[in-house]
Amino acid sequence: MYFLSGWPKRLLCPLGTPAEAPFHVQSDPQRTFFAVLAPVRLSIWYSRPSVLIVTYKEPEKSSSQFGSYKQAEWRPDSTMIAVSTAYGYILFFHITSPRGDKYLYEPVYPKGSPQMKGTPHFKEEQCAPALNLEMRKILDLQAPIMSLQSVLEDLLVATSDGLLHLIHWEGMTNGRKAINLCTVPFSVDLQSSRAGSFLGFADVHIRDMEYCATLDGFAVVFNDGKIGFITPVSSRFTAEQLHGVWPQDVVDGTCVAVNNKYRLMAFGCASGSVQVYTIDNTTGAMLLSHKLELTAKQYPDIWNKTGAVKLVRWSPDNSVVTVTWESGGLSLWSVFGAQLICTLGGDFAYRSDGTKKDPLKINSMSWGAEGYHLWVVSGFGAHNTGIESDSKSVVKQPGLLLFQFIKSVLTVNPCMSNQEQVLLQGEDRLYLNCGEASQMQSARGSSARSERKAGGGRSPFADSGLESPGLSSLLGHRHWHVVQISNTYLESNWPIRFSAIDKLGQNIAVVGKFGFAHYSLLTKKWKLFGNITQEQNMIVTGGLAWWNDFIVLACYNISDRQEELRVYLRTSNLDNAFAHVTRAQAETLLLSVFRDVVVVFRADCSICLYSIERKSDGPSTTAGIQVLQEVSMSRYIPHPFLVVSVTLTSVSTENGITLKMPQQTVVHCARKTEYALWNYLFAAVGNPKDLFEECLMAQDLDTAASYLIILQNMEVPAVSRQHATLLFSTALEQGKWDLCRHMMRFLKAIGSGESETPPSTPTAQEPSSSGGFEFFRNRSISLSQSAENVPASKFSLQKTLSMPSGPSGKRWSKDSDCAENMYIDMMLWRHARRLLEEVRLKDLGCFAAQLGFELISWLCKERTRAARVDNFVLALKRLHKDFLWPLPIIPASSLSSPFKNGKYRTVGEQLLKSQSADPFLSLETDTGVSHVQRSQSWLGDIGPTPPEIDPASSHGPQMQDAFLSPLSNKGDECSIGSATDLTESSSVVDGDWTMVDENFSTLSLTQSELEHISMELASKGPHKSQVQLRYLLHIFMEAGCLDWCVVIGLILRESSVINQIVLLIQSSEVDGEMLQNIKTGLHAVARWASTDCPGYKPFLNIIKPQVQKLSELTEEQVQPEAFQPVTVGKTPEHAGPRAEESRGSSGHGSVPQGEVGGGSLVSREEEDATRAQEEESFQDGTYDCSVS
């Protein structure tokens, strides 16, 4: 993966006239020097620093004889350059160095700074050498030269007369005759090439060609647009020994470039596309792998106006390819066709004022060392915009441009153990995503601060933790941590070749030309070799990896001329004295670490396994390495350079125990491998569907989520949707909320057909009075509405909503009413029903808060179905268990306690209410008050105002003021919360409080009374559970689920809750079936308390008047209903169970005539029709998946 970094640099060229402008650039094999051609000039440039070293200008007399320069090709050892001319000449230039230690450029250090001139290789790395160019040989081929290609010690030349010349670098043909292309047989494969056809026209010749070492042949483009591949069947390069294959459907080829690592040939075409071919190993035929082409969807204005492909160039690591067209533009593609960069659209194509730029025309381009730079010769007139006064416009005449790139470390070090964090490397710096450990603490702290700053409007069920590290790292971050590589190390070891980060994301190691260095993200310090000679004596060959605190690398020892495997401890000094060294038999190309096993792949196509263990030798700690096994793979690998990565899948021990490769390793291996190779990968490691199911069975949901991307590309959409549904259901059940949110986006993306991009986030939402639960994570609730203003037909809160900007808001905008949204909603509704049926209120609260589920509006619909309490006793027991709320008990001394008669019965109740942020607490001294609304409680503002009570005729007590004072001074820890914020609770419970009546200054309590208070306090659950229960009480109260409110009121043992419910029933139209259910449930609780839990009996005695009143209201509603006809809507309700209840749950009661909630009345017929439609759509979207 490559990325452009900054604006391209323009190199100053000494130009005389426009006719002397450069038009061709070619790097040497080491990419240290660059040959730049002008019509009569040959210039040599140095890479770092990018400076001009020497220029050769052809004399006017010889120039008229040879013609202008056309192409240049370097000798493999960079000692000669061959230049072709327009009149068929090849000029051989020798590159020599002047005698003595002379350099063209040397660094100048300020006085007093440490000098590096005494270190080895200092002159070579820091100083631009002084070179001389001398033309030694001239060869006349008597025909215009079309292409030059260096092949080992020979130079292959194609001329316009249809001949191929094989020339020695010293300018001699060695008596070998030129090969006429008309005598080379061509066919669709090598099996029939002897009987194939020949190039039967006289003017056929090669337009462009390039040698592929791993295929042992030449990819060629003919002048008529046909493409082909020529390979010798023996070591002799003669016409009789050459065979050719070609695809017969390509007739518009323009240029070619080969990828030796993947054995691919990229042919540019006149249509503007690039066709990438490979060779079939069995028949030798050319097979089309894929195409690189612009689409009308991405580039509607220019996709078919680019002109022919002009140039194609693979990067030095063979991981990306650049393409440019005749009409201009530059694009970058991955090996198998993913577009990374294109200058024809986006910010590249337009200026800041909106005007369109002319595409950058490129005459020639060549990659620099390690792919960090792309040397480009811009074309004539490419920047002629007609705005002469624009100071930012580029100079019109051609010049040298230097594009700068950064790339993923996996392109050169694919076996790096930590692949969860994105690490990019540039020529002098590293880019790391902000998921590393050093950043997580600050991120966690900043997020906590931002939440506190936003206010207390968070649900008590909302999780403040971060996403899971694995999934979060895979998704990436928007911010980057930039690490500047040590200049001391870069001065003599540029460019950086390998990088690796440890599994904790705290340490990074880099490898340059010699040695290596490592950096700590915690201390912000680099550690280099103390002995510079040791650093300059080792060349890392096969990459490096981290194993715990150790750095494992394969290198070549220059002084001993020996391949070695070394292990260095991070915490010790960087010195060979602290390293464990093991000699190797051959050069290491790839290195990987799996658990305690080091796997290396060597140049002789062998794989060697080493065991690594930590050893403590006194005060020093080292690592020991021993050879486990060596396996030769030469029978299966045609060329060692073709191996992309090596990964250990399993290890069988002597005891027969097999350690399998973790699934996460397979996913990472697939993610760094091109899609075209996935079939080969999973043919070796297993079917991705089976691996996905294994991850589900192992409860590794994050890795299973990564497999969805693979299934999405390899299977039909129905399969990926089926597996995504299964994973979504499992994540819901396990409470993996981050994964659930991503699965919701993934399922929606599958339906919209745009799975590559995340679904759009709604920008505007309308709050609703019945469904505001999803806003609780970022809002505060105002209970300022007085009870007198609430109509009799409503019992809802007046809410002040603060619209969230994150994922806690509504999932979809109201106009996106598509099938996928309904499908996801059905899954969420089904899960919510299951949680309610299983009485898992705590899980229901977390589920709604984390996923932004509109709980209140859904509860209004399910009030008499899933949201109905079927078994009050069972529900009460489940709440005690889930919220860690102890069952109440009665002390032995309670029989003689004054609390038995209720004289001080509200002491514990008031202490309970102190945790719910009541600012004032009232003391009741008479058991007869059950109908008086407590205006001090937040529940008092929920329901309507009861009829005014005459103090003289009422049976209620006289209200008295109560004062709370802390026994110990706890400072700021003791604060009373606000009743306007349900999600913040007071910390008064942390202090020791007593109640002081105004009639006496001290409260004398006996031992039995103190025991009773302590037992009552011990009957309370955790503070967080109390906050959550009160929160759920508010939700159910707003939704009209009064039976659940009764259950929560029982567990909290607050008579005010029961009193409030009775008041709501008196002033609102509540379904008679719900009233009967509440009455039956309370009687069942009373029987259970009498037999199994006597601790509830005192509270049940307190609420006896409310229960009696409830019974009276129930009887009043049952009598007139006895004469009402049965509604039609009840028939389908009991006709059969719902699809969601097919698991064995029984159906609930019928829907009431009118629903009380949000002020809307819904008829039975309309609701049943809506219900049937929802069930039908849910059944259509249900998929079954069997896990084996």
TrEMBL record:
Gene Ontology molecular-function annotations: guanyl-nucleotide exchange factor activity
Location in or out of the cell: Cytoplasm, Cytosol; Membrane
Record SUPFAM superfamilies: WD40 repeat-like
Residue stretches of biased makeup (Basic and acidic residues): 1131-1143
Region Disordered: start-end pairs: 442-465, 1119-1188
GO terms of biological process kind: intracellular protein transport; retrograde transport, endosome to Golgi
Membrane-spanning parts: none
Keyword entries, A-Z: Cytoplasm, Guanine-nucleotide releasing factor, Membrane, Phosphoprotein, Repeat, WD repeat
Gene Ontology annotations for the cellular component aspect, listed alphabetically: cytosol; Golgi membrane; Ric1-Rgp1 guanyl-nucleotide exchange factor complex
Summary of subunit composition and partner proteins: Forms a complex with RGP1; the interaction enhances RAB6A GTPase activity. Interacts (via central domain) with RGP1. Interacts with RAB6A; the interaction is direct with a preference for RAB6A-GDP. Interacts (via C-terminus domain) with RAB33B; the interaction is direct with a preference for RAB33B-GTP. Interacts with GJA1.
Biological role: The RIC1-RGP1 complex acts as a guanine nucleotide exchange factor (GEF), which activates RAB6A by exchanging bound GDP for free GTP, and may thereby be required for efficient fusion of endosome-derived vesicles with the Golgi compartment. The RIC1-RGP1 complex participates in the recycling of mannose-6-phosphate receptors. Required for phosphorylation and localization of GJA1. Is a regulator of procollagen transport and secretion, and is required for correct cartilage morphogenesis and development of the craniofacial skeleton.
Family: Belongs to the RIC1 family.
Name of the protein described by the UniProt record: Guanine nucleotide exchange factor subunit RIC1
Organism expressing this protein natively: Mustela putorius furo
Gene: RIC1
